[in-house]
Design a protein that fits this description.
Rossmann fold; about 300 residues; 11 strands; two-stranded antiparallel ribbon; binds S-adenosylmethionine
């Protein structure tokens, strides 16, 4: 029996509802888009058009993966971060909405330091006059958001995971003109950066692993996302401690460190930043009101 696109979408929605996903209508629409290339409006226009066999089989495969518990972002193979469409798969953490707040905070810090914020200028030829870094870049989410909003920045993206860097490189390559200002480096935290940028970074941003080994995570996270992106060690603070202690020697004397953290880690991170010599230190909340981002400045206003 030949189905129409409208019937196929309703059928997908019913299957997604039956397995308990929180927004079956949205996921059905995204999956139809993935197999057909039609956006939401086109899907409505084509609702009574018969479907050929190939997209139906493709949709069945996506629904089967979702039914097995795979996060919708991996099933779709892409996800949006700060308005950028990123390749995401099991090699990288799924970029989170709270990290978009961290990106925004980081961009405003660079603006506070006197640099321009705005869309890239294709005619600039990729000229830069300062350097920033995203450590533990995963999919490249934060680095790409910085490069997209800071037109004069050279942006370094590093990770210790070769799998993650392979994904980041795809996303950088797909980023168009901003790719000319993005550099990818392999290594543990600051070791992934070239010695030439030591002491010159206007901004270091990182969303490091900050979960303690003993913490219990939802199955969809624990079973699907890379452990190396989630767990930091016995306390959960190991990566944060290292980044705060090491950042001063890599930052410009006026530079800022912005770190994502778990809400309960805020007070400890502030104390560590003061110990490391940062003079102006605060923690900002995310959209849900949870303490989420450490801002540690080497120089006060
Ligand atoms: C929480 S994920 C963040 C990914 C991405 N920045 C984001 O916000 O979506 C942490 C990232 O840090 C990387 N990582 C873990 N240990 C690292 C280390 N010692 N040096 C560099 N990166 C590391 C992981 O591979 C992972 O990509």
């Amino acid at each position: 029996m030949t189905l129409t696109w409208g019937e196929l979408r309703r059928d997908a929605e019913a299957q997604l509802r039956a397995i308990g996903v929180s927004d079956p209508a949205a996921e059905a629409q995204w999956m139809i888009e993935a197999v057909s290339g039609m956006d939401a409006t086109e899907q409505l226009i084509e609702a009574t058009t018969p479907v050929t066999h190939r997209p139906t089989a493709g949709l069945d495969a996506l629904l089967a993966r979702r039914a097995a518990g795979e996060p919708v972002q991996y099933v779709l193979g892409e996800w949006s971060f700060c308005g950028l469409d990123l390749l995401v798969d099991r090699r990288v953490l799924i970029p989170r909405p709270e990290t978009e707040i961290v990106a925004e905070i980081a961009i405003r810090e660079v603006e506070r330091l006197g640099e321009r914020v705005g869309p890239p200028e294709p005619w600039s030829g990729g000229l830069t006059h300062y350097v920033v870094a995203d450590l533990g870049t995963g999919s490249g989410a934060l680095a790409l958001a910085l490069a997209a909003s800071l037109p004069d920045a050279e942006v370094w993206a590093t990770d210790a995971s070769e799998d993650a860097l392979a994904v980041a490189r795809v996303n950088v390559a797909a980023a168009g003109t901003i790719a000319t200002r993005l550099r990818v480096g392999a290594g543990s935290w600051f070791d992934g950066l070239p010695p030439a940028v030591r002491g010159r970074l206007l901004l270091v941003v990182s969303n490091p692993p900050y979960i303690a080994d003993h913490e219990v995570l939802p199955e969809s996270v624990r079973d699907w996302e890379p452990a190396g992106a989630l767990f930091s060690g016995p306390t959960g603070l190991e990566a944060i401690e290292h980044l705060i202690a090491t950042a001063p020697e890599w930052l410009d004397p006026a530079g800022t460190l912005v770190l994502e953290l778990a809400p309960h880690q805020g007070d400890r991170a502030v104390a560590l930043a003061h110990d490391a010599g940062f003079v102006d230190v605060s923690v900002r909340p995310d959209l849900a009101g949870y303490q989420r981002a450490l801002i540690a400045r080497r120089r006060a206003d």
